[in-house]
Records
---
Amino acid sequence: MMMVTLGNVSLTAQRLGICAPEFKVESDAPRLAFRLDFAKLARLQKLLEQFRRCRRYLFAVLAGLALAAAFPKFDLAGAAWVAPGLILACAYNCTGGKAWRIGYVAGLAHWLALLSWLLHIPVKGFPILGWIALAAFMAIYPAFWVWLLAGKIGQGSWLRRCFWSLGGAAVWVALEMIRARLLSGFPWNNLGVSQWQMTPLIQIASVTGVYGVSFLVVWVSLSLYSSVQALLRNPTTRYVWMSEVALPVIVLMVIFNLGLARIRNAPPADSSLRVTFVQPAVPQTMIWDTSENTNRFNQLLTLTETALTNETDLLLWPEAALPELTDANYAAITNLIQQHGVWMIFNTDDFIEKSNPTTDARYDVFNAAYLFNPEGQWSGVYHKRQLVIFGEYIPLVDVLPFVKWFTPITGGYTSGGRINHFAFKGFKVAPLICFEDTFAHHVRDHVDADTDLIVNLTNDGWFGQSAAQWQHLASAALRAVENGVPLLRCCNNGVTCWFDANGVMREIFRDANGSEYGAGFANWEIPLNSAQARGPATFYNRNGDWFGWSCVGVTAVLLLWRFKRKRS
């Protein structure tokens, strides 16, 4: 015989909405007793509630990673057209601190993924700290963007929604403008750079700079988000979403077709320059090892002797290829130049005695590019103006000496004050060193109406064979379009290549194994147009960041409106 008794319903069960009585089983057989453990169910419910609260942040992380995937090496450029809208979607109906936190989480995931190449720097400990610190700082920008735009996202009348998406794109551009200038600037991977292979689209950069491309991408992304919102509000209306994307799509089609026309109507070359690019592929650890200087230089000379032909007009050595300019190295270089009758541009340090020298710092040290003529004579020098923060200089070190302990690199370089051009054989060259070509406004300052080409000498060997080389390369495509002149890249370990005036990568170096990172050389003929054939300089080159500063103005107005609304 079995008897079942029904106990009281627990308070926990009532909260869960479950009829969960306590059971007692009695029988003549050996006694069995069991009860439902409502304490465990309550803990499960708590975990589910926590998940619901955290899922915004989880999706924000995924959206940030999707945005990172738009850049090299993944090169999923289409992700850039969706990810900004997804980031804002995570902050739907959120305001204030919560919106900021969601934006920050998305930004942190984005920049940690994008800057992971910092971990390749061959220094123990510090790369991890630098990677985290820089990503944490960069995440402030998307956090501000989400904070300013979040709330009742994509609601109201069609006109209001349209202004919201345009305003969101303007704020994004304004933040890129600030990022390119604040604390010496870090314009790495502006959103427009993700579209570097979309050649017809990026031609708009000749008018607006890279910021115009960034604006288009964000505008379309926010419009797509608004279209999804419209579809959810009116699921029975078949084409309700089309009104949200019609305007940006029309504008995009017009810009795309104008870009195609610009490419087709490019004037034919009326001259050319035969250039020898040498890529020594020196490991960064060897660059720091002074005992290898002689061996390095001999290998560089041997590689260059193999590369040079009697038809070469210009010889390029990348940044950090030359260990040091000793008397012996100087003699070897001049002998090489005279033997082959070539012009040469190479990189080394330049020392100039201070006007008021001290025992600790007698000389100003510059990261310099030199031009030598075929007679082996010095013909020009350019001192790098845009130094790498915590790499080539340490900010506030005189006021806060302890700052130097946060970097393994001693710094000590002085920023160059003047823009110098190199002139030879009737051509005018704008020299750039390292990551200077990521600064749109900086490169524009270097390119005059009669500048024939840009030459960038860089050492990306700091970061091994990582995405850094390709992210750096992508920026070069935009600089060529903005200024309407070809850009030549000579790199230590990749990626050595050149872009034409439309931002098309015409040729790229690969070694015998098909790798872009190996040692070797390339002999390329660069077609050029005279200033008369090119016509006027690009609109961007003549007028600068007019579009970017306009977006800064719009952002200032939106910010004032937000504060005024909050106070009222």
---
Amino acid sequence: MKLDGIRSLFRRLPENASRLISAAVIGVVSGLSAVAFMLCIQFVFDNGIVRLSRMPLPVFIPASLAIVVVSCLIVGLLLWKLSPDSSGSGIPQLKTAFWKDLGFIEFRHAVVKFVAGTLSIGGGSSMGRMGPSVYIGGAVASNAAGLLGTPRQGRRRALLMGAAAALAAAFNTPIAAIAFVMEEMLNDLKGRYLGSIVLSAVLGAFVVHAVIGRRPMYEMPPFEAASWHAYALVPVVAAVGASIAGIFQRSVLAWRGRIRNRSRIPAYLQPLVGGLTTWAIGIAVFVISGKLGVFGLGYSDLSDVFTGRFGAWQAAGLLLLAKLAATSACHSWGGCGGIFSPILMMGGMAGLFLSGMASLWMPVSDADRILLCACGMSACFGSAVKAPLTAILIVFEMTHQFTIVPALMLTTLVSQAVSRRFTALNMYDDLLKQDGHEIDRPVRVHGVTSWELVPVTAIASMKPVVLDGLSPDAVRSTLAGHPYRRFPLVLNGSPAGFVTRQSLEGFISKGVQPEILPASTCPETATVHDAAEMLLDAPEGILAIAGADGTIRGILTMHDLVRAQVCAEE
């Protein structure tokens, strides 16, 4: 009753006032969720792996193994039973929710992400917390907007606000949070959501300031000017950092694809494989160098670089290779965590290693090492995410060192050019593509008349997954590679109708011939108005977009119409 009263009061407010209040609520609750996630990870990791590392090796080795095994088993069961889509970083799922589901995310996914991410990262798996933090913040915001009376189909703005607030709170980087959401989520730096995103990011930063403090992620001693030797090495570090990110992206995609298509290991045990791989590599590195950077986030070793406590630069090369292998394994085998922290770790170690090699034939000061380490971080992150502005701002805000900004800008120029040699898409979009979730951003139109005259191809899903024939191999491959509930069916080169996922699964498991549902077709030259009328008469609520040659070019559902209409009205 009280909730209904709050909703009723909220609806009576002027539009600007309601948006301001919702942004404030979302900024605070999403910021708090990100801070709580960070503190939980830190608590589990510090009281597990870190505490055990201070004990003798005969104690540390089996005890750390037990922690990794137990945490990964729980994570695997949680993901398998409650939320299979909660594996990985969460950014691809967040983008899918924004562009395809109108900003709606079920709250249970946020809960599973929080618990699984805490156990996975805190338990030692080589993964990051940025992606899960952003996902949790976006999901919390989507549901908070629902509690305030926002309809399910109108939560896109809330999702973006929550993502910005969570990122700002998680790393104390409000400016970078704004840039990331606008640059990566929207692909638009001048969008109409900017004001709401800025306000939420500011409030997220206030939350972390109130709970933890104003200090940056990486505290540095007084920073002297770097030498010209360091600036001469910046392009080299940028190119190497971008190459590392490209190798990481390709390796994850390759192994992930092989595991999905060929692995016989049950889904609930797959995160354990990544965890055991990390443990084996991490123990070897710890025995050799005394470094714990392979486990978890790796922030402590990276902080040691900035404070001059890291030790021999050769250990940086070892950590770089070890972190690359461990993180690739964890992500390929479906662990719950992001790429942000491991990528920063790899880039920082690359910068330190190259500065150490350069010191063999030229003078390299402590300031030079710090500068090159920061440039490596920016290069690696910016190349993986394909967000150059965010790459500059995030490292700057994490260090609070304005003097490194020119070097970061030079790094971005070189790293972005190199990264395009590896792949045109960022890692999140490549993962979406591999999962069959390519995002077709609808064309925004303004005005009822223009909207009715827009070609249907502007709003339909024009990359349909078409099932060519009913051979068992084709059916298995389609079901394994794509999560959709219905598929257009082509028999003997002609559209035959639609088949449901359930009927195809019955065909594979029991040999029952799948039911072919009738297909209503619409020419690709039709307008949205004409297609909408045809869709209303379609018996299955789905319309096939046919090309001039009769082939299926796309599909249109009522969801596509609503999604596009929301975009147009906004």
---
Amino acid sequence: MASVEAPSAPAMTDKEQRLARNFAEYETFVLKAQDYLAQGDLQTAAAYYAIASHVATQNHAGIFWSPRAEKVLNEIGRRLEPEAPARPRRTEIKRILQVCTQVSAVGGHTKMLCQWVRADKDREHTLVLTEHRGPTPQFVHDVFEASGGRKVEKLNHRPSSQIDWALRLREIAKDFDLVILHTHCEDIVPLIAFADPSKHPPVLVLNHADHLFWFGPSIAHLNINLRDAAQDISIARRGITPERNILMPTLAEGIVRTRSREEAKRQLGIDPDTVLLVSAARRAKYRTMGGLTYADIHADVLKQHENAMLITVGAGEHEDWAPVQAAVNGRLRSIAETPNPKVYFEAADIYVDSFPFVSSTSLMEAAGYGTPLVTIFTYPQQARIFGINHVALVGNVMQATSFDQYRAMLTQLIADPALREKLGTDARSAVQREHNLPGWLRWMEGVYTRALELPTLDNRPMLEAIDRPSFGEPDIRHEDIFGGAWPTIRVVMSYIGMMPPKQHFAHWRQVRRQGGFKSNAEAASYLVPEWLKRYVKDGVLKLPEEVTFSG
């Protein structure tokens, strides 16, 4: 009898191979972490799990969380947990501990945190920073002081490691009714600190990086999602049960117009009769994908309508936009990021979203000025995480599913001022109702109520899951949209100062052999423990002026 050969597996596509390579690299660091754990070196093991997470965040590996890594970090945390009875359940929430990896003077992340604390006037808020770098903006201190909370504490300014910072965070949290995490994707400190949910206040995770891999599902008493697609991913790909997911819109400041649209145009040197299209986002959100530039998408519209102009704020100069810019006689301008783009929002007749990476915050801001909103979503529905599906924006943003449809929408809006007025008014009303005060407070109180109603989290069953990369949607197109190929040597450099002296020096030598340091001065700076570097960078300790510190 003739033998029958089994059919061969189909060859992997280039994109699938990329995902597989990224997962293999992530796997390499997880295995190294396990080796150090087996040696009893908890400090280095913890740092390697953070590195692994950083790798998976920057270079998408087909996973949105890692039960395997979180299980080990959970075990480390439980191992360091003193014997103690379960914490009594709280019946009300009065004192809240807000936890961030770091805060900054610009950006929506810190802005929403401070707006949240200001809005929640009846409760006391305290801020802990796990791995803060650089000065802390004074307005952050002012906001938390006004709420009645304790002095802002920076854990990485303590002479110790991530393990010790986690133990300190655990100690601080004992005095609070609730913990809310606004931490970065790779932050392992809360995972260790709150390993056993029965012994700590409920931990709420703000899912602000909803399209990325992040650590934290196993300690999420409640996961706060800012849009529908994020909630879907959290349930399907992060192992968080439906009852522990909740929706809450982004809190946005109420918009106060200071100039008419015509006045703003004049200030920018633009004829008031020009129909002005505006887009505002970080440069990365306008990346060229598959040879198609943001300029190419708008070329035909600008050629067809000589009374129209497009300004992108934040994109900066792109060499591959030049042919279109020349073809439309300068009616496509692209400027660098500016601290206050208010005049551009006030001047806009139509707001157009960034592409291929959407910008919901800018859409909400534009809506506040009564501007009609247009976005592009050309991907399958399984990739909804790459589109706009936020409270109040759904139904109030014109969403094109093809470039031809997008250009038709813009043509319609350019030609119809009455339609622009109606759509802009509808968008403004919806955003004001859900994203501004006092309406947003209803969502916030709903989150607190759900947190009190839920039983204590038992995270052990979910930690038995297995890391399995997906080669389907949305993973397959993730890196095309958000970029990747982050040099892992720079990631390792970020953590060597958190390792014990022996491993710190060994890894420093390895980085130096691989040419990771840009100069001798940078190399010298990475010999210093992380906590000491923070002391110097923040001016707590003064060193001679010729000594410099990177990172």
---
Amino acid sequence: MKNKILNAFILILFLLISCEKNHLQKPNIIYILADDLGYGDIKTFNIDGKIKTPQIDKLAKDGIKFTDAHTSSSVCTPTRYGILTGRYNWRSRLKRSVLSGTSNALITKDRTTVASFLKQNGYLTGFIGKWHLGWNWYFSDTIIHYDSNPDQTKKTFYGFGEKNHSSADRIDFSKKITNSPNDLGFDYSFGHSGSLDMPPYVYVENEITTAKINRFTFAPKPYSWWRYGPTASDFDHDDVTPNFFEKAKSFVRNAVKKNKPFFLYLPLPSPHTPILPLTKWQGKSGLNSYADFVMQIDNHIGELDTLLEELKISNNTIVIFTSDNGCSPEANFNLLSEKGHYPSGKFRGHKADIFEGGHRVPFIIKWPKKIQAGSISDKTICTTDLIATCAEILDIKLDQSDGVDSFSMVPLFSKETQDNFERSYTIHHSINGSFAIRKGMYKFIFCPGSGGWSIPKPSQNETKNLPKFQLYNLDNDPSESNNLYGKFPELEEELIAIFKNAITNGRTTDGHVQKNFPTNRFNEKWEPLAIFSGDLFDL
């Protein structure tokens, strides 16, 4: 009898321990970042859109979609910096524009990233895709002639203003890279350095190039263009996106075999230029090559989601899907609009702009274990919010210097807790370094015009006659067509004061004052508050 009681007690204890272990099981996290994909390119965000995206729509149906999600910047590199660090890019040496494929590392080794934070807390971490945050190549003092007969007429400037090492033909590819993704918390890394139209065209796996340079390539065609540069024997532009998804699947399978929770950062090089849909996808959209490419990416995402089901890990895997900024004009807006498709939907502007089309992006989170299928949130969130979200999921407090512009999205995963969401304002940034601040329905823009590539462009003659600043009520005017600047002086003063504090405090979260990097990457002094000089404000 005693033995029976003892056995029963042991069984109950085992079940309790198993339940507790299951309760505390850390979720897997997959972060898929599309490149230059517009808010209006995904059907679930734009019912009038003409591109079919059934797999991404399914993610939204199975999880939560955010209709007011934003990138911290309207271009590539700055957004990626914000995702991994939880900081606005302009706190670093990158005050405007983007890096090149030959740029040195932007994130310093001592900076906590999402990857290093999760790795410290038991995660297997992987980066697969487009890095575009700089890493340190080994540069030779002289040009290395990888091409026996280089066509000098095809050489284009691809250093994007970098004062040192702007030429990929000085890289010694036999040497390991330094200041790499592996130094920032990633156990495994596989990718290329910049955008897919920026040389060098090589894969780097765990700090080592995967193949030797055997040619220089150049593509001047519309849609599919890329700059002239050294290209490795195993690098085919058409196959890069499919390769990254295959590598991603392998990483997931390996993590499951090791029985470890994993974080996979999967920043795609697409549908950014070169726009290269595989043969079987060409013409599928009935619109153009860009739309075909979006459909191909949608299919890849569906295959990855299916794998999670097959491995029986879908229930406790967080899948996040978004884009790094709005759609680029390279998509051929004129042709798309002729066929009734608008990549920015109802919003003004596109990639590079301070207008909504530059930084409002599709954003979806699927987590069956915690998020009710078919949920929708209209709260304003930012791509900097990832690290704070991970910290709350794990119930671990970030250090004072970490994630200074990051707010946990966890309260938004349930209707019962959404009022606990703490982000009260968001700061946006354009390609030329122009700012905007968003609080509630109001958006204050600290420049005339777009601050980017759409009309009125910076420094164009037509901006001379425009107000110095812009104020929009996005609830009533989502197209940002009615500038209210000057009509609500108290509101304007409030937003200006908040903006100034965000800069001087070095953070937008509560905590100790942090320092911003005082100069840009050219060692020029950074003076963001100079926009208030003159007779308009006495601040």
